[in-house]
Amino acid sequence: MVIRLPQYGRSQNELPTVAQALEFPAIQRGDPVVVAGAAGLGRRVRWVHMSEAVNIGGLLHGGELLLTMGIVFPEDPAGLSLYVERLVEANAAALVIGLGPRYTDRLPPALVEAAEKHGLPLIALRRTIAFIDVTEEVHASLIDVQIRDLQASESIHQIFSALAVQGSKPEIVLRQVAKLSGFAVVLENRSRQVLAFDPAERTPGDVLAEWAEHVGRPHRAVRTYYDPLSGWLQTTVGARGNDWGRLVLMAPSAGARDLDAALDPTMTIPRSLIMLVEQAASTLAIGRLVDRESHLLDLTTHSSLLSRLLAGDSDPAELDEQATALGVSFRRMRLAAFAFRSRATGAQDPRDRQRALRTLASAISDIAQERGLASLVAPVDDFTVGMLTTVRAGSTDLEEAEAIVEHLRRDGSPVLAAAGGAGRGAAASRTALLDAIETAGTAASMGVDEAVVTASDLGLRGLIHTLRDDPRVVQFAERAIGDLVDYDAQHKTTLVPLLRHFLDAGRNKTVAARNAFVSRPWMHERLRLIGDVLGVDLDDEQSCVTLQVALLVLDTQRERSESQRKASPL
User: Fold this and answer.
1) Which residues have C-beta within 8 Å of that of residue 69, sequence separation ≥ 6?
2) Mean pLDDT computed over 216-230
3) Cα separation of 215 and 429, whole Å?
4) Does the structure show a pLDDT above 90 at 21?
5) What is the DSSP string of 272-331?
6) pLDDT-derived band of residue 3, with 50, 70 and 90 as boundaries?
7) Which of 402, 374, 403 is nearest to 387 (CA)?
8) Count of CB atoms within 10 A of residue 64's CB?
9) Whole-angstrom Cα distance, residue 272 to residue 377?
10) Among candidates 199, 380, 360, which has minimal Cα distance to 305?
11) Across residues 547-552, what is the average pLDDT?
12) What is the Cα–Cα distance from 312 to 335, expressed in whole angstroms?
């Protein structure tokens, strides 16, 4: 159930109108009748004032319901017209005159004509009443509004102060705004991309569609304002001169939608709603200041989207809607997939590693913005930053990746990048990003020196490295070359290295002997022994391919053992 925030406060549409004020019992006892200016009955009554002075205009602040008996009103029509004009200039809400001592049964025609001309409600009380009863009754109602306004302000302050102290995430802050107001709320960054939103009682797709419809709207310089065209109440989010976002409350029914209204449309919004969005914006700003990582919110949003994409179980249309709100479209854009791994050593503590990873993701995001790329950037596992991005005109995917790597290197952040291809659509982007992540992990384990690699660059060695934990691959290598490894161990020979020289030389025995620094006849004799031990014909090409793959598996296992030994504590 939605708990709507009571629309308390002293905003223009919370104060009673002149028509509503005439319904108060104290005024009704005077049998009021509207003599002129009926068009102004919708004016708001800010206060009730009693006076018999003619030059009262300079003492009014606007919005007063003026009570008088007209005792000292001027006799001449010009004087009465001037009196009405001064009330209009002071923005008085209405003029209420009690019939009796001065005017027994009707008001002067000049007074009526002037009031009608200027649209000032002119009310005659046909029965005598005590004006003090009117002021007490109306003022009690207005004071009650102010008290409730203060109560609402205190409640809002307590709620969002607690959220700020708890370090609540933006999603929780927005959920509270939607719960209290009943309206959808959107948090966008300076680039007008959605960082987070809560649809309240609406569907996410409906909210995003409305947001996209008005995304190109102009912004005013003031921090908080109501846009009558879109029906949005907006306030700037930021602190200490660092404004980084905007909070948008989609409240079309809360304020005036008349573009030609004389009043500032923001003045027609309930004060409670203004307090709500401004307090929520302050809470979000405090959260941003407490968390010194300026891109954490963007990374969290991007990370959530990339995680759902990689999981492969989300609706592509819904994914594209959310990506579009972040400035990227799977459907309409060709997106290149990259994965980045830091070449820096250390930071073995998981928390330090996560901080370093977020810092790297933030740096990559900054570079993408500088290069004008629409991108999604976020950590995708404990070691890798994933990226889906557009590519600048005239540049290839690999050139774009190399430019990012070079920029990071100049900033003191050496990385290994892997390119996984590019495509359109959520499925193609998922495949390309998974390929980039896998390639980056394999290349990092292999210790490649290239700045940017692809799966094809790693070749068969990369494939075997990827499958090194598969027991079937290990069994294959043991069956193919295990007997030769055991023979070397038992007889203190070096047949495995000689076989490697032979295969690396393209089965050219002369070249193999030269590379191994042995004589050709001795190489012939050793190769014959290798064939006998393994039970294979080394002149058979298929057998040699099998042995070469087995040696690659053997190398991969040895590299892994050495890496684990170096990483283990003494």
Assistant:
1) 52, 97, 98, 100, 101, 102
2) 80
3) 26
4) no
5) HHHHHHHHHHHHHHHHHHHS--TTHHHHHHHHHHHHHHHHT-S-HHHHHHHHHHTT--TT
6) very low
7) 374
8) 23
9) 38
10) 380
11) 80
12) 17
Residue 334 corresponds to which tokens in the numbers above? 């060709």
For residue 65, the one-letter residue type is L
Q: Does residue 66 have a pLDDT over 50?
A: yes
C-alpha span between 285 and 427 (Å, rounded): 37
What is the per-residue pLDDT across 278-302, written as a single tens digit (0 to 9) for each?
A: 888 888 888 776 555 445 667 788 8
CA-to-CA distance for 250 and 373, rounded, in angstroms?
A: 29
Q: For the chain, how many residues are written?
A: 570
Compute CA distances 183 → 179, 200, 301, 456, 522, whole Å. 8, 6, 22, 52, 87
Q: Judge whether 297 and 172 are in contact, CB under 8 Å.
A: no
| Residue 208 predicted with pLDDT over 50 | yes
Sign of CA dihedral 416, 422, 428, 429: positive
Residue bearing tokens 């004087």:
79
Amino acid at 244: W
Which range has the top average pLDDT, 138-147, 252-261, 549-558?
549-558
Q: Are 334 and 423 in contact (CB under 8 A)?
A: yes
Give the up-direction half-sphere exposure of residue 72: CA atoms within 13 A in the CB hemisphere: 6
* Interval 448-462 mean pLDDT: 78
pLDDT at residue number 332: 92
Residue position matching structure tokens 């990370």:
303
Residue 506, classified by CB atoms within 10 Å of its CB into exposed (0-12), middle (13-18) or buried (19+), is: exposed
SS3 538: coil
Rg (CA), the chain: 40
* Alpha-carbon span 538 to 405, nearest angstrom: 45
325-355 pLDDT, tens per residue? 888 999 999 999 999 998 875 546 677 788 8
Greater model confidence, 193 or 250: 250
Q: 6 pLDDT exceeds 70?
A: no
E strand map for 501-551? none
- Give how far Cα 358 sits from Cα of 157, 172, 177, 276, 418, Å: 32, 22, 29, 32, 18
Distance CA(191)–CA(249), nearest Å, equals: 18
Q: Which two tokens stand for residue 75?
A: 């006799």
Angle (CA) 541-474-535 rounded to 5° is 40
Q: Given its phi and psi angles, is residue 517 left (phi above 0), alpha (psi -120 to 50 degrees) or beta? A: left
Cβ-based neighbours of 556, under 8 Å, separated by 6 or more:
461, 464, 465, 468
Q: What's the burial of 437, exposed, middle or buried (CB within 10 Å: 0-12/13-18/19+)?
A: buried
Q: Which residue has the higher pLDDT, 314 or 148?
A: 314
DSSP assignment string, 145-198:
HHHHHHHHHHHHHHHHHHHHHHT--HHHHHHHHHHHH-SEEEEEETTS-EEEEE
Question: Taking the alpha carbons of 289, 295, 299, 302 in that order, is the dihedral positive or negative?
Answer: positive
Residue 359's Cβ-count burial label (10 Å; 0-12, 13-18, 19+) is middle
